[in-house]
Amino acid sequence: MDSRTVRAQDSLLARVFAPTEIHGFIQTYYRSGDPTTTDGFRLRKADLKFNGELSPHVRWRIGFDAAKALNLILTGNDTLDALALTAVNADQRSRMLQDAAISWVQSKSFSADVGQQIIPLGLEGTIPTSAVETIERTMFIVERSRGTGLGDVRDVGASANGFTPIGIEYHGGVFNGTGDDVGIVDQNPQKAVAGRVSYHVRLVPDLQFGGSGAFESGPFIQRRERAGSEFQYRDLRFTLRAETMSARDGPLHRFGWYTLGAYRPNNELQFVARFDSWDRDREHETGLTDALERQLTWGASYQLDGNVAKLAINFVHQTFPNVISPPAATFVLIAFQSVF
After folding, report:
1. Distances (CA, A) of 197 to 105, 149, 201, 229
2. What domain range is 202 assigned to?
3. For residue 237, what is the DSSP state?
4. H or E stretch including 17?
5. Cβ(192)–Cβ(222) under 8 Å?
6. Rounded to 5, what percent of the chain is helix, strand, coil?
7. Number of domains forming the structure of the chain
8. What is the CATH number of the domain that holds 166?
9. What is the DSSP letter of 79?
10. Distances (CA, A) of 120 to 163, 208, 298
11. Is 12 among the domain residues?
């Protein structure tokens, strides 16, 4: 290896590692009183993120969530008298890898990302977990019994993003799927198109409203449709936010919405309340797997030690209006989290 090659490699390594930034977020909570979940502690998030600049226009980022539990996919065949297990594979959607993308940043008005990234769907899904006012996100994001949520989901693809001088924030891209195919090779030739547009009112800079959507074509059972609306007013002391999200996955129709209000009397203390409605299957009401669920959440949080840590408590009143079991219940979440 000649000296020019060595110098070139050293220069590349210097560009990659010299400006590297490392960020992290850890959240642990205790859940008690929920009839659908066993009481106990949970390591909810253990994020570690790296990012840096390769040139004035090219940036990179990689993120991991070490709290994710690896799931297994079991495959079996019927025999004469039993179901025989024939294969066991890791569910790639449960891998720790979150973001892995390269960005071309032209200006505030335009940038492009290529790689694994958050799909532009919904407003709360784009807010970092450490900045969400409640301990858990809204139900249409958190509840993933159908394979993937309707926000804060990732897939591999390419996107364009920006903020125009007239106050329009835009995000749009083409992805392998709507979060179904993250971490694996696309299972079909069709691609998902997703986009989000939000208008920031110039006369009231703290006010924004807009919508988002996604569509993947193909056979009926494979088709994915998403459509949502958003509204938010946020200043130093108050946050008012509301969203709706409708989804069709083949024959399955889902719908969720919420309204949230938060008040911060000072830089350390925050009070929050949210009403949340989530219908997993609009055609059926037979049990927990498809029942309409409503939650009323209220609580408070306090920033500790220069805002590097936060202690939060949320009370959640949970009801299933159209099924008998489980009955209405109120449970508590107590969380401790830190950002670094």
Report:
1. 19, 20, 13, 10
2. 19-339
3. S
4. helix 3-17
5. no
6. 10, 55, 35
7. 1
8. 2.40.160.10
9. -
10. 14, 16, 28
11. no
Gap between the Cα atoms of 121 and 150, Å rounded:
7
Is position 1 within any domain? no
Instruction: Determine the Cα angle at 246 with ends 242 and 250, to 5°.
Output: 165
pTM reported for the whole predicted model: 0.87
Quickly state the pLDDT bin for 325 (edges 50, 70, 90): confident
In a domain, 270, yes or no: yes
- pLDDT tens by residue, 15-44: 555 578 999 999 999 999 988 888 999 999
Extract the tokens encoding 278: 């989530």
Q: Choose the weakest-confidence range: 66-70, 244-248, 334-338.
A: 66-70
Whether 212 shows a pLDDT value over 70: the answer reads yes
Give me the sign of the Cα torsion angle 222, 212, 125, 319.
Answer: negative
* Tens digit of each residue's pLDDT (9 = 90 or more) over 287-306: 888 899 999 999 999 999 88
- Amino acid at site 39: D
Both tokens of 212, joined, read 């988002």
Please write the tens of the pLDDT for every residue from 166-189.
999 999 999 999 987 676 778 888
Kindly state whether residue 9 falls inside one of the protein's structural domains. Answer: no
Percent with pLDDT over 90 in the chain: 69
Which tokens belong to 127? Answer: 């807010």
- Distance, in Å, from the CA atom of 253 to the CA atom of 232, rounded to the nearest integer, reads 26
Token couple for 340: 């670094």
Distance CA 78, CA 320 (A): 37
Residue 67 dihedral angles phi and psi, to the nearest 5°: -85, -10
